[in-house]
Amino acid sequence: MSKFRAGVLFGEEIDEVYADAKLNQYALPAVNVVSTSTVNAVMEAAAKVNSPVIVQLSFGGGQFYAGKSLPNDNFEASVVGCISAAKHVNDLAEMYGISVIMHTDHCSLVNISWIDQLLDYQEIYYEQHGRPLFSSHMLDLSEQTLEENIEICERYFQRMAAIEIGLEIELGITGGEEDGVDNSDVDVSKLYTQPEDVYYAYERLNSIGNAFSVAAAFGNVHGVYRPGNVKLSPGILRDSQAYVGEKIGASVPNPVSFVFHGGSGSSQADIREAIGYGVIKMNLDTDMQWAFNSGLRDYFSKFKDYLGGQIGNPEGDDVPNKKYYDPRKSLRQGEEYFIERLVSSFTDLNCLNRNA
Questions:
Q1: What is the CA 163 to chain-centroid distance, rounded?
Q2: Of 105, 197, 270, 348, catalytic
């Protein structure tokens, strides 16, 4: 019997997964997707390791999912693309036999209408179906003051909690560049969140509900860099847990559910240390893009003599090449490389057979 229900989880089910992750020292990979190929590869990998997984879309990922030719001046493509992807996962997760947390990634204040419209849709959907389409959404208001960040997050969390959706927030700034947001030149001090800030956010949000997580900055950076160029300080998470625990009189360690952004290229030792300090989710994007790209690259390299024309290859001038240029062949190899890389991340995150 599975520990968690197959399908897209919501409400108290999210709390149960994150509580189990902290208790048993593992974290869920949260994989950015942009297409049915990447969505299906995530679900296939989760089924392979028999563990829950997080499928997430960024603002740009939702737009691409809908189609780059569609207008997006009022966020309509990003909204409809995310809704379409969420329906896809809701329809197929149970068939794959997996537990999924359906999530949206970084939403800054300038794009907040994207989340407004997703919530507008889900409030109606919830009334009709008794559940939301998404498990949780992320608000990245780290460019605002701490007070403004949390005040806005409180308002949105109240709205989300009413339809059993969780919230992820960001404190401090994750460096590097992702999905058009460039923090490469940010003040280094902002890459390290202070325990007092974590407690401020925890106290305010916990009064609304338990289903929230905190992406605290501890030197992590989006993208991938040479070893030694990124200075992680997971001890910030340890100190924050101790500080919050003392303030609230917690009877168990790690009261805060932390999120690890910018984890590409991190060592297993750094990942496991962060998990020990309450990280229950690690975002994966850059390494997954590279894996899918590598599958395509290797496919076209292997069959280059069969892909120069529709007819004619080393086997004969009149031999057709349809079975080689069928896009399902190259895309499947991209999926296979993606799955292999994701299984490696499940292993690093100590997230194997967690649905048993």
A1: 21
A2: 105
